[in-house]
Amino acid sequence: MRKSLLAVLVGAFTLSTASANFYVQGDLGLSKIKFTSYSGMTKTKIIPSLAVGYKFADWRLAIDYSHYGRFSDKVGNESLSSKIYSLGFSALYDFNVNYDVKPYVGVRIASNSFDINNSSPGFLNDRKETKLGYGAIVGGSYNFSPNWDLNAGLEYNRLGSFADTKINQYGAKVGVRYEF
């Protein structure tokens, strides 16, 4: 009986909040990934990202996934490549202004995964490393239909640091957000 009551209460709570303040957001952006020591790997790419979040008052909290892609360089006989993707958490503040476009600022922390391949004649090193990253976000959103917002923003992320290089991401993105 207690388990049934608990299940009913959890279900009722879930249903009551399922349509309140949750959102999904998809973005597509132009990002420059800069390697401080391997300039040949520095590239500008189109980067997709997807976020699921919760909005309360003027705050939004989101979990996001970004796929930065593959980067490679060859120096002499040595080849280096890295595939980078990220799972992050963002806290964003929407400024309550009397304009159609609502500005926002935010911060992000992330677990950034690097699939690294380093090879030269007689040597091969494949490894996966995870680095803690951080970033800042600024942008604006425009409510063009009930529950739908158009989003545009700028972002900076420190994706990670290795012994010989630091990896930074600078980007501009646009997307849509749907609030349930």
From TrEMBL:
Assigned protein family: Belongs to the opacity porin family.
Domain of life assignment: Bacteria
UniProt name for this protein: Opacity protein-like surface antigen
Record InterPro entries: OMP/PagP_B-barrel, Porin_opacity
Keywords annotated in UniProt: Signal
One annotated GO molecular function: porin activity
GO cellular component, one term: cell outer membrane
Keyword Nucleotide-binding in record: no
Signal peptide: 1-20
Originating species: Bisgaardia hudsonensis
Pfam families: Opacity
Domain Porin opacity type stretches: 52-180
SUPFAM superfamilies found in the cross-reference section: OMPA-like
